[in-house]
Design a protein that fits this description.
The chain is mainly α. It contains five helices and no strands. The chain has helices at 19-30, 43-46, 49-86, 91-124, 136-151. The longest helix is centred in the middle third of the chain and has 38 residues, at 49-86.
């Protein structure tokens, strides 16, 4: 039942192996002694830019949805509260809801994508051996610094 590569239903496939290498890997894996480095397989070699982008985009979309809910929820609550108290809704309240959704979603997407990309690069060793064990707090701090830099990059007055 051995093949020259492993395939899944999502279009992913392993490196090509000859029968002897595949049998050797099967025995080593069965014994629980498999070490990817022994076969010249390292994270930076198998982590493709395409995979990194795909995973970062998924994380960004999740973060965007959460950010939209967190930003829009209070605005919807204020609008409903105002409606109950006054019996009408002001047109400006809808623009606040829309702006909150757009700005929250955009910022959430960028933050989530950036954090996922930084984490993947660190854990894979692409940014050096020392960053392989980076903590989520460090990734969070780097993401916040990068986002604040992006948000305030157009300021020329020196204010942050």
């Amino acid at each position: 039942m051995l093949r020259d590569r492993i395939l899944d239903n999502k279009g992913n496939e392993s490196i090509i192996l000859n029968k002897a290498d595949a049998e050797k890997l099967a025995v080593i894996a069965k014994e629980g002694k498999f070490k990817a480095d022994d076969f010249g397989i390292t994270a930076p070699e198998i982590l493709s830019v395409e995979l990194l982008m795909k995973e970062s985009l998924k994380a960004g979309l999740s973060a965007a949805v959460i950010s939209i809910v967190l930003r829009v929820g209070p605005e919807i609550y204020r609008t409903i509260d105002y409606l109950i108290k006054s019996g009408e809704i002001e047109e400006g309240q809808f623009s606040k809801i829309g702006f909150a959704a757009v700005s929250g979603g955009t910022e959430g997407f960028i933050r989530g994508s950036m954090a996922a990309a930084i984490t993947a690069c660190c854990k894979s060793g692409l940014l050096g051996e020392i960053l392989k064990d980076v903590t989520p707090g460090v990734v969070g701090a780097v993401t916040v610094i990068a986002m604040n830099t992006l948000k305030h990059a157009d300021r020329t007055d020196g204010a942050a």
